Amino acid sequence: MLHFCAPFVIYSVGTMAQKKTIKKRLQKDCVVCGKQMRVISYIDRSYRGGHYFGKHPLFTDEALAEAHKAGTHEEVMGGRVIHVMNKNPIPYDYAEYWECPKCYWGARYPKKDRQESGFLG
Ligand SMILES: [Zn+2]
Fold first, then answer.
1. Which of 34, 82, 102, 110 is deepest in the core (most CB within 10 A)?
2. How far is the CA of 110 from the centre of ligand 1 (A)?
3. From the CA of 19, how far away is ligand 1's center (Å)?
């Protein structure tokens, strides 16, 4: 009982034991399989329970079409010519991109490779 009331958890990484203070517990949906995962974030900005890829802007088709219509212009950056959009599409929202551990590792290590290398996590 006391264990669950403690404001921090102790877990071990290899032979090293670390004390971390939990900032909050989050419920996130995996963007790949839709499964819910429990993510624990710590005050040192680390987290566990899922894999976070940052915030991605979401655009409507209209916003993208409008930005395309405005065309591009050339700019020199670091000695290279790049094409820059004249108008940036305006995102209507930002979505957090989370993957559950299963999808994260599954995509990077296809089952066949995992079995061959002996990695089954
Ligand atoms: Zn998933």
1. 102
2. 14
3. 28
- HEC string of 69-120 equals HCCEEEEEECCEEEEEECCCCCCCEEEEEEECHHHHHHHHCCHHHHHHHCCC
Amino acid 21 reads T
Are residues 54 and 64 in contact, defined by beta-carbon separation less than 8 angstroms? no
pTM, rounded to two decimals: 0.52
User: How many CA atoms are closer than 13 Å to the CA of 8, on its beta-carbon side?
Assistant: 10
User: Encoding tokens for residue 74?
Assistant: 């050339």
What are the pLDDT digits (tens) for 72-101? 999 998 889 988 999 989 999 998 999 999
